[in-house]
Amino acid sequence: MTDETRLVEMLTRYVGGDCTPEEVRQLSARLERDSAACDLLAEILTQGVAVREFAQAYSEPVQRPDRIPQPWLGWFAWRPLTAAAAGLALGLFSASVVFGLSATSLGNVMTLLRESFESGPAPLVIGVPIEAGEWSGDYSEVVGEQQGVKPGTGMKMLRFVRGDFEGRSIPSSHSSDVFRLVDVRPFRSEFSDGGAVVQLTAIFNAVAFPEDENFCATLTIFALDASLVGNEKVRGENVLSTESLAYSRSSKVVMDRDPATWQKVSNELRLPSDTDYLMIRMGMSNDTKSKSKRRDSFAGHFADKVQLVIARRAEIPVP
Fold first, then answer.
1. Residue 55's pLDDT band (cuts 50, 70, 90)
2. DSSP alpha helices (H): ranges in 16-168?
3. Which of 236, 244, 187 is nearest to 220 (CA)?
4. Spatial contact of 184 and 132, defined as CB atoms under 8 Å apart
5. What pLDDT was estimated at residue 100?
6. Which of 59-73, 157-171, 219-233 has maximum average pLDDT?
7. Where in the chain is the domain with CATH 2.60.120.260?
8. What are the strands, taking DSSP E only, across the chain?
9. Distance between CA atoms of 50 and 30, rounded to whole angstroms?
10. How far from the centroid of its chain's Cα atoms is residue 67's Cα?
11. 296 vs 137, 161, 252, 267, CA distance in Å?
12. Going by CATH, does the domain composed of 113-312 fall within 3.40.50.300?
């Protein structure tokens, strides 16, 4: 039995309340040092409990047998499903994972992605991704505190670097973009009648920059059918905007010059009923008017706390 298989088995048994005290002790130690194990626990919680059960767990604490001590959970207080419903299993470790969330003020809301760049592989720099579950785009990197900018949450954040990517130099580029493809087919029942909206939020920051320079942050959501996924065609110029089922771009948020403040950007899109995937894009543009300055370099610009949610929302009635 491989180490990964053994871990999956132990986490599954823990969720079911079947671990011995010694196994819980071993698992506690593993989770404290292994962020990948934390991610896996969050995924198992997601896959093992339906969305509506999360809502029930949120409002009615699940009682766990007293025979299993769980010191590492602390204030989770024997309620792992409650923690999952509230997103705490994810938030505690600031991990990137897809999971369900219910019982909010908006009704039935599901969180499709929450990312604080605390764990997982570094973003690829090969342009638009053609596979789900990975960040890719222009040159970027995951960093800790830099140049007076502290991460918005946790210890790490995404840093925009340049306006091009491996194999393609774009001297005229004045924006740096990072993408992620999200599979929404498991949630199609929520939007097959056109009654659901997705919302993408993220926070952005920048080091202090000269008065004659100007930078803006944007978020874009593209609804795609499966034909573009795994297809190099999606990397072509303007293909996302011309071949998507629908797309929406946020208003530009002008970056201030205060590295102590994070600025929130938000965007929404009503999903077409035949949507298979969402492509999300975080962009930082250099809108400096002076042509004598480089516009394809972004040495001190950052993003953090990315969240993508879906909820049912009625359309505005038209008389």
1. very low
2. 21-33, 35-48, 51-59, 80-85, 88-93
3. 244
4. no
5. 40
6. 219-233
7. 113-312
8. 109-115, 135-137, 140-143, 157-162, 175-183, 196-206, 215-224, 246-249, 253-254, 263-270, 277-286, 297-312
9. 27
10. 36
11. 14, 9, 18, 24
12. no
- Band (pLDDT 50/70/90 cuts) for residue 2 is low
Q: How far is CA 85 from CA 78, 91, 137, 164, 300, in A?
A: 14, 11, 32, 39, 36
Q: In this structure, what token pair is assigned to residue 33?
A: 């040092």
Torsion of CA 224, 227, 233, 235, to 10 degrees: 30
Which residue from 67, 68, 64 is spatially nearest to 24, judged by alpha carbons?
A: 68
In the block, tokens 């920048």 appear at 206
Q: Given its phi and psi angles, is residue 210 left (phi above 0), alpha (psi -120 to 50 degrees) or beta?
A: beta
Instruction: Give pLDDT tens digits for 121-150.
Output: 899 999 999 999 999 999 999 999 998 999
Q: What is the pLDDT of residues 152-170, one digit of tens each?
A: 999 999 999 988 899 876 6
CB of 127 within 8 A of CB of 165? yes
Place of tokens 């771009």: 249
Nearest 5°: phi and psi at 177?
Answer: -125, 140
Block residue for tokens 């207080």: 77
For the cut 80, the answer to whether the pLDDT of residue 76 exceeds it is no
